[in-house]
Every structure is written in structure tokens, then in C-alpha cells.
Amino acid sequence: MRVIDVHAHVLPKSFIRAAEAGKDWHGIKTSSIRLSPKFMWSTEQRISEMDDLNVDVQVLSSHPLFYSYNKDAELGKDIARDCNDHIAQAVKAYPKRFAGFCALPMQDISSAIAELERAVIELGLKGAMIDDVVNERTYDSQEFLPFFQAAEQMGALIFIHQGSPTIVGLRTTKYALPITVGGPADRTLTFASLVFGGVMDKCPNLKICLAHGGGYTCFGIGRMDLGWKVRPEARANISRPPSAYLHRFYYDSITNSEENLRYIIDSVGIERIFFGTEWPSDLCDDSPVEWLLGLKNLSQDEKEAILWKNLERVLGI
What we know:
Elements: E1 4-10, H1 13-20, H2 43-53, E2 57-62, H3 73-93, E3 98-102, H4 109-122, E4 127-130, H5 145-154, E5 157-160, H6 177-180, H7 182-196, H8 199-202, E6 207-210, H9 217-230, E7 250-252, H10 258-268, E8 273-274, H11 288-293, H12 300-315
Parallel strand pairs: 1-2, 2-3, 3-4, 4-5, 5-6, 6-7, 7-8
Helix pairs in contact: 3-4, 4-5
């Protein structure tokens, strides 16, 4: 049985070299960033850890610290290209162990489309990882529609993962709540923006994966349906209730709860769930494959679908 991890982050070598030399990287102060030491590991060390975790393939994505949407568009392009070239090199060197998502300068949509095209068509990456929001603008804004149409045409998977600050981070920074509560909250708003904004209707073949089990989407869908039913503004762009769109998205398995994962599977269908670890974050489970294999409420067929079959089908890995 194979195991494919859709949610694994990496730092570009150029950043690591700058950090080791005590230098800035594209204007980013490397000395101010505190990450797990595993982020600084070589590719060979990463593969060794993958073997220990029983993970066969990681779909690499750059750390969300590097979204850089608030920076000048040209600088954003340079940062994205550095990240993407590094991931492409890892995939080329170890094609049986790695696939990749690109980073994009989402503050400039024409540049984002051009870089997505380069990454997917020239570099062979599988799609892109983007934030839930671009400089406080959600994805129902019309300016983003050409991007999603381009991603749909290319068959690229768009993996959505929070950056910083999250919704919760705007209110409190206590108790690690900006990431443990804020990340899932951001993902729920992203689902709602794409659905209520009509993006999913305008792009019927768009492939989107919501990290961290889609946040609170499945648990709050009843309230969204009620809003659609009783508030005219909620029906401005869609003729079906939001729950009709749950199966249009993909979701990673990072819920940290067997009961929650079971509920999401029952809500969206087993074929929409991808295995994820968030390696090498400190929020990564120590034994994520063992955890999933040990779940009593999932059948063996469901476990295999999550661990590899769904990603193999969708990404062609």
C-alpha cells in the first residue's frame, strides 16, 4: 500500500543558505523566523524521515510564510520563482518521492496566472498552494475569477492553506488560537466565499483542496443553508444551497479527531479526502500514518482511498 502526503512544507535552498549566513532573503529577515529544525534538513534527511513515517510521496509546498502578497508584485514574483524552482528540482531529482505545488504572487493576478502556467506546464508541478485571503480580499472578488478559470483550464489543483494573520489573529494572539482556531475559521470563510460568490458555478471543473479538513465547513453547513434559505442576499449568485457544493471540494485528513474525520467523510464522500500530515510543523502528528490506520470507524477501503488512491487518481502520482 502506498502513502501520499498532500500537505508537506519545505523551505527553498536559497532561503536556507541566507539564514545560515545570517543574511536577509528577498527582504525577509531570516533571523526573525523560528521554525522546526527539520525545515533546515537536506532532501536526503527528509526522505529518511519519510521512510520512518511510512510516507512514500510528499506533495511539497513552500512554507506559507512566503506568500508575500503584501509585497511589491515584482518581488512577489521573484520569491515565488525561487520557491517553485527549488520544489521542481527536488521533484526532478526524486520523482518517485516528491510532487509539488507552486507558490504564486496573488497580489498580481496576471503574474499569478503566468507563474502557475510555468509551474504546471514547464516544471511539471501539480498545482498551487495559496492563502485564504489576498490583502484582505476574499475569492468572491471578481478580480480573482480569471485565475480560477486559468487553473481550471490547466487542470491544476489549488491547495488552500492559511497564512498570517488569520481571522482570529486579528482579535487575539493568545493561547495559539490564531492557528488552532483561526486556520479552520479561515478555511470555512474561503469555502463560503467561493460558493456564495458563484465561483464554483462559473468554474464547474475547478479542483480545490481545503487544508485541515476544510476547517469548520462541514460542521457549519446547516447554518449556511439556513442563511441561503431565508436571506435574499445569500441567494444572489447561487440557486442551490451551500451543502450542494460540499462534494465539489477536496479536503485533507488533518482533523486530529477520528470523530471529526468520520463526519467529514460522511458529509462529502470518501473520494474527496486526501491524506495530509503538515510535516515538519510542530503541529504534525508524530505517527500520522499509524494514526489513520488505527482508526476503528474507517474501513480498510476507506483508509486506502485516503492514504493514496484518491491522490493517485486526481494528481496522477
